[in-house]
Design goal:
The protein is of the alpha/beta class. The protein is 30% helix and 20% strand. The chain is built from eight helices and ten strands. The strands form two sheets. An eight-stranded mixed β-sheet has the order 5-2-1-6-7-10-8-9, sandwiched between helices. Strand 8 and strand 9 form a beta hairpin. Helix 3 packs across helix 5.
Length: 258
């Protein structure tokens, strides 16, 4: 499902970079505490086996849990249903489905985008279908079953303890200096990095997706505006600097204090 800041296009390459020869069996589980639209979680499950999937958005987790229990998301909807979903309890799976899957830019109730229609693509000059609700439903039906064996729970990374057997933590927090996420409390970036260092001190491997990292780290994967770049010392900085205003999105492995 499309999600604000989602990693649908990069998930496979990111998991390959962060896992490498890591395999879950016999080495502990992984934890994705900012699971969002599940793109990275699905790839982690396929590569490393079952893990722990969580998010601070209670409504989002309720939707995933409801699908585990047999709920099927609708393929069609109306603007009236979108507005009505705003006041649904977080336990109702329709709240997150309309609030994210049927909203512009997948931003939490950022405006209704539920009506399927055809639009003329002026740049590529062809008619294209616009069906965000159907696309969201189909992706959920595909992705949630791919997490078979995984634990799905609502948890705030800043206040929740990691399961005892977790050895790999992948974090995709709200990026500093970007549009904040609605539907969850304002994010404390300083507390986040302190929490990451605590997990590293306890022997866990912590990998963070961000534009910058204020704590000791090493870069294991990077991209600039949709251009894949990989490896440290492979000229990625020189290539990125040629693009005026380019921002480098990286996977940072947080290191223990020396």
């Amino acid at each position: 499902m499309h999600y604000q800041g989602g990693k649908f296009r990069q998930a496979k390459a990111m998991v390959a970079a962060m896992c490498g020869d890591w395999r879950g069996r016999g080495r502990g589980r992984w934890w994705d505490p900012f699971c969002g639209g599940l793109s990275v979680a699905v790839q982690l499950a396929a590569t490393c086996g079952p893990g722990v999937v969580s998010d601070a958005n209670r409504a989002l987790i309720s939707m995933y849990q409801a699908m585990r229990d047999g709920w099927t998301p609708p393929l069609t909807g109306t603007v009236e249903e979108w507005h009505a979903a705003k006041v649904l309890p977080d336990e109702d799976p329709r709240k997150a489905f309309f609030g994210i899957g049927a909203s512009y830019g997948a931003k939490w109730f950022g405006g209704p985008a539920v009506v399927a229609r055809r639009e003329w693509n002026r740049k590529q000059r062809y008619w294209c279908s616009y069906d965000p609700l159907g696309a969201a439903a189909r992706s959920l039906v595909r992705d949630v079953p791919a997490l078979a064996g995984c634990e799905i729970r609502c948890a705030d990374f800043l206040t929740s303890d990691a399961p005892a057997d977790v050895r790999l933590i992948y974090c995709d927090p709200p990026y500093a200096g970007t549009t904040s996420y609605a539907g969850v409390p304002r994010f404390d970036h300083l507390a986040f990095w302190a929490r990451c260092r605590e997990h590293v001190a306890h022997g866990r491997r912590v990998v963070v997706s961000e534009y910058s990292c204020p704590v000791p780290h090493k870069v294991i994967w990077s991209r600039a505006r949709g251009c894949m770049l990989s490896g440290v010392g492979s000229g990625l900085d020189a290539r990125a600097d040629k693009r005026e205003g380019a921002r480098i999105e990286s996977l940072y492995e947080v290191l223990a204090c020396s």
